[in-house]
């Protein structure tokens, strides 16, 4: 039997709404939206004919100015007829509004996953940025320089290896706590039935990577990380 998301896509192309698809396959509304985003559903393929469908009366209501300044064809530059939130259009830059429009197609679970991946990437990158080579690895930085008529002075900041390492451990601890909190929220949403099999597998894989990262930091182990994830019912 085909996967649920394949059958659901066929129903979507046939004109079924998100809610109807969710009820038919006994999944959450967010899961259906996630399927659409991940698998690139397109209603143009196999969309039903307009016969028998409800149609709206053509033309804008009296007083509507959506097409103001438009003499026909595509909307003129500066036209805001496609802006959903007037507040956003007024105060947010174009790049930010574009991001918001893309986020409208993301489910809450997918947006939470994005936050988890960004946090995890930042932790891994910090391993290189904050690396302390040995006890002699000090950093000297010029922080102030004064040049007067008859005097000249400089102020330097010296970070000893143990200070840099202690700062790294504190930053790592806070970052890992944030990551673990995000993972916990993700797992709670999975238990509520808001995730499909693929979304559940990816959090299991990430938890294994985080556990091994903690182990490598604690033991200073340079061996490569290997993660093996199996689907439920399969043997590794």
UniProtKB/TrEMBL annotation:
Gene3D superfamilies: Homeodomain-like. This is Phage terminase small subunit. Residues 38-80 are annotated as: Disordered. Pfam families: Terminase_5 (PF06056). It comes from the Bacteria. Residues 12-44 form the Terminase ATPase subunit N-terminal domain. It comes from Paenibacillus zeirhizosphaerae.
């Amino acid at each position: 039997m085909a996967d649920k998301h394949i059958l659901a896509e066929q129903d979507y192309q046939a004109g079924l709404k998100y809610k109807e698809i969710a009820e038919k396959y006994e999944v959450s509304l967010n899961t259906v939206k996630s399927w659409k985003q991940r698998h690139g559903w397109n209603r143009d393929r196999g969309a039903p004919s307009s016969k028998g469908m409800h149609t709206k009366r053509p033309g804008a209501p009296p007083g509507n100015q959506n097409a103001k300044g438009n003499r026909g064809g595509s909307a003129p530059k500066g036209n805001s007829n496609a802006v959903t939130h007037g507040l956003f259009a007024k105060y947010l830059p174009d790049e930010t509004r574009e991001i918001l429009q893309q986020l409208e197609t993301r489910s809450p679970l997918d947006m939470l996953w994005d936050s988890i991946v960004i946090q995890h990437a930042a932790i891994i990158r910090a391993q290189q940025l904050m690396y302390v080579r040995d006890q002699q690895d000090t950093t000297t930085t010029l922080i102030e320089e004064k040049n007067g008529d008859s005097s000249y002075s400089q102020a330097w900041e010296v970070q000893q290896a143990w200070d840099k390492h202690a700062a790294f451990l504190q930053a790592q601890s806070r970052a890992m706590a944030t990551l673990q909190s995000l993972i916990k929220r993700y797992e709670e949403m999975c238990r509520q039935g808001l995730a499909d099999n693929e979304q559940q597998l990816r959090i299991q894989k990430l938890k294994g990577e985080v556990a091994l990262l903690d182990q490598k930091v604690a033991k200073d182990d340079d061996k490569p990380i290997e993660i093996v994830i199996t689907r439920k019912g399969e043997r590794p």
